[in-house]
Amino acid sequence: METNQEYIFDNVINNLLDSNKPFNPQFLHFFSDISLDNLEKIKSIWFKVNKDRKYNLLRDLESLMEANTLVSCDDFGYFALQDDDPHIRSQAIRLLWDCSDIKLITIFMDLLQNDSDPEVNASAAAALGKFVLLGELDKISEKSANIVQELLINEYLKTENDSTKQRILESLGYSSNEKVNQFISSALENDEKEWHLSALFAISRSVNNIWGKVVLEKLTDPDPDIQIEAIKAAGELEIAAAKEQIIEFIENSTPDEELHVQAIWSLSKIGGNDIKELFEEMIEESDDEEETEILEMAMDNLDFTNGIPSFGLLG
Prior knowledge:
CATH topology of the domain at 207-315: Leucine-rich Repeat Variant
Helix content: 55-70%
Largest sheet: none
CATH class of the domain at 207-315: Mainly Alpha
Structural class: mainly alpha
Distance between the termini: 69 Å
Number of helices: 18
């Protein structure tokens, strides 16, 4: 006799196969910690599911995991990595963003080196950044950490695809390997905007005060995308000298602009009593509900920042 859960999962299957009806978002939770039996059911019908529906399912599950830390779709993500469609394989990699299983190192390295699709190569390169960080934090073995970093460095030097190379650079941002500084410097000398964005992303992960002046310069770049990435880097590196410029960004932007939001969050990471006073004043004056919510979260983060020693770069 089928249990109620099994019966409901049959409804999930039927809904997944019926492209004429929207997929019921209430069914997304059935993919969290999915049972072996239910995963086998999915495998048996997966080839029948519309490609767009597959992709949207994986994307929605990723969003669900970001919103709810108790949700885990790792087993389903492992399965989806084997899909014939590269767009779906790439999204499956992103679905595994929170999984630190070292078995993924071998899988992602293989996808980076051997998958025929550049989008998958780039996604795998980005995903390996997590293991670079874990290696720097001594959360995985030194052997595994070295394997990941050596592969990424070799692939950075070898690959001719800019997108893949940029994702590799961003992943290597966590690394303390001296070669990475050379890669970042070269990226900053490139004329293309995407290279500057990747360099700043890598810098934001570096916790390295040698990049402080570069970040300050990029804050005045005329391109708003580069400004935003520089704002993020200033926050991650806790560059006190960036406060005045970032406050000016807040004053000259509106609450619905990404630059405005990133500037608030960056200041919460730089810290200081002056920032606390600024946030309190902004909360009092704001009539925008979303901005107020962001400011309140930033205040919580600011309390944490002010309670611990900061790098105080260029302050």
